[in-house]
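Module 6 notes. Inverse folding takes a fixed backbone as the condition and produces residue identities as the prediction. Think of it as a translation problem where the source language is geometry and the target language is the twenty amino acids. Below is one complete input and output pair. Work through it position by position during the lab.
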């Protein structure tokens, strides 16, 4: 079967603006989108540029938009795309500048990964180190030993360590679309992965404190796109939610996001209702309230002024019970 590939093309050295070029490709059984692009490059147009390396969904190099969705080209079957869309449309990943054709500049992405300190922190000569390293007879260097149960979070229950840094989540992230400085799902999933690593010795929680700054864990907009489009089945948004819990449990609550959810939980725990004025004041302080005045004025004109004092809801006992079950009373 022959099929059409419509590829984004842009070479900033010679092109004034991007354009699309179409190619006709002859398929073969099991052909992937990467196979198709490599066939074009080898047989039709050697100038078509894209990244690839392992061809086994391991290195993350070949990520691109395929028919509008960020995917690994080496893992995407031509047949399933043709069945759904009738052709292959290839574009560079989103949220990063294009270097050429399907190649994006990854610097901004990897700068964000570096910001979360993606390595084990702390002194090696400490109790934690010796829990995981033993000096055997006749050996000069202590060897690592693995305590399965303590690594379970990394290898069993959680999938964050499986990230291959392909940038599909970053390309689809609505938070990055709204704020280019937001660290993004991959960096935050990595932050979670290291914060859970029992060998890490970040005793003062510096990684989580840094991650709680603006553009960090509290700037996730929960669009869930990172989970939906990760080719390795990872859920960065779940990792980010766990970081929220961890920050609050460790009293790292200086950020607006933490103040916001603490205030919401408190308001509902006290009255069963959401005291929007109090939540706005707790979250943004006086400056925040002044900022919100135009919106409050508009809401007032529509008759939506919240009551000064909220009445308890009828089933308040159920809320108290739920809070008790969830151990939220003290938070
Ligand atoms: S070429 Fe390595 S993930 Fe596709």
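Target side of the pair, the amino acids:
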């Amino acid at each position: 079967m022959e099929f059409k590939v419509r590829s984004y093309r842009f070479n900033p050295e010679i092109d004034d603006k991007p354009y699309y070029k179409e190619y006709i490709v002859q398929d073969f059984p099991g052909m992937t989108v990467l196979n198709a692009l490599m066939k074009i490059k080898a047989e039709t147009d050697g100038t078509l540029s894209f990244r690839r390396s392992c061809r086994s969904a391991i290195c993350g190099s070949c990520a691109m938009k395929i028919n509008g969705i960020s995917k690994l080209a080496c893992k995407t079957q031509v047949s399933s795309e043709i069945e759904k869309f009738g052709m292959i449309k290839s574009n560079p990943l989103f949220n990063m500048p294009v270097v050429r054709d399907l190649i994006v500049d990854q610097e901004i992405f990897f700068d964000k990964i570096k910001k979360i300190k993606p390595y084990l922190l702390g002194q090696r000569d400490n109790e934690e180190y010796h829990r995981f390293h033993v000096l055997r007879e006749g050996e000069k260097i202590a060897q690592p030993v693995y305590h399965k149960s303590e690594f379970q979070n990394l290898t069993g229950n959680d999938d964050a360590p499986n990230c291959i840094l392909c940038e599909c989540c970053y390309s689809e992230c609505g938070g990055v679309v709204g704020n280019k400085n937001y660290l993004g799902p991959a960096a935050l999933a990595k932050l979670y992965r290291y914060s859970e690593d029992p060998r890490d010795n970040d005793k003062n929680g510096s990684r989580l404190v840094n991650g709680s700054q603006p553009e960090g864990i509290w700037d996730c907009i929960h669009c869930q796109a990172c989970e939906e489009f990760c080719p390795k089945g990872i859920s960065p948004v779940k990792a980010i939610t766990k970081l929220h819990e961890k920050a609050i449990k460790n009293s790292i609550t200086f950020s607006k996001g933490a103040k916001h959810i603490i205030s919401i939980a408190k308001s509902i725990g006290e009255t069963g209702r959401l005291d929007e004025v109090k939540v706005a004041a707790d979250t943004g302080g006086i400056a925040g309230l002044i900022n919100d005045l135009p919106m409050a004025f508009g809401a007032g004109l529509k008759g939506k002024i919240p009551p000064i004092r909220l009445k308890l809801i009828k089933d308040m006992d159920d809320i108290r019970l739920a809070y008790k079950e969830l151990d939220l009373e003290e938070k």
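Reference fact for the lab report: The first helix runs from residue 33 to 43.
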